Amino acid sequence: MLRTPSVCALVITRNRKELLAECLAALLEQAQALSAVIVFDNASTDGTGEMLSGRGLTRSPLVRYVRSAVNTGGAGGFAEALRLGGETGAEWLWLMDDDAEPQPDALERLLTSLPARDARTAALCPAVVHRDGTLDPLHRCRLGRFVTPLPASAYAPGHYAAVDCASFVGLLVRASAARAAGPPRREFFLGYDDAEYSLRLRHLGEIRLVPDSVVTHKISVGGGEASWRSRFWNRILGAHYTASPWTSYWKDLYRVRNLVAMKAEHQGLSRGGLALVIAGYVAKTLMYEDRPCRRVPWLIRFALKGFRGDFSGPTPDEWTRRQLRR
Question: Do 319 and 172 share a domain, yes or no?
Fold first, then answer.
């Protein structure tokens, strides 16, 4: 009989305590028991710690709750969580945000898949679905000029497609590979930190999709809402993008900056390649976003920052204060 490897789940949270509670319930009810669960709280102000204590979750011998005094972003949160997870001695580290809810057999199906038994495998990916059960393809991708989702055929039963870029929604990483890869880049803060980390993992082994393992992702990539523009163009292009509200547009700017920085480092992005990336983002903005002419100058500015390796602000708080002054 094959020995079951030990797994530590790492959950990053910020101001979404009810989603966190649902995520933890799903983790503690896994058919394949976890050896530990570490919750890293990115300076929540909504009473997350009190909620966990009130529901008895912090008294569970499996759950460790760690709260940061400052918001370090997704990149900083996962960097610290991976460090803490490595100290547990677990053989695998299972990464997710608080808006993820793995199905009861998700971990079991990952660990019993053929790629899990292959020493060349650095990480495994479950399929990601929306609340309604439809596939969310934006989490498992290939990297070319742009990051593009895997085709639907990659999710065929029994097929374990190779993945270039994986989001942290349910990514199961071999602990030895996590140690060798180093932490996510904290300066990314949010956006493509997971993709850049995936590229480093791929230098150590393969990342494989396990389509019969499923995790529900409750908030769409970018956190935007469907608009008439997004519905129209998604129907025409077969895409899955949403429009971004101006109040949180800093997230899109960080993603543009970080993608360009990632490509410059890992693919040797030329000035001509940069121009094509910017053109693609401008086209997407014109098609999907409200008031696109207001957004395009910001987009170009942040793409140039990424090309120069400049990770300066505005920070999320500075962006919010800027909107309040208007």
Answer: no
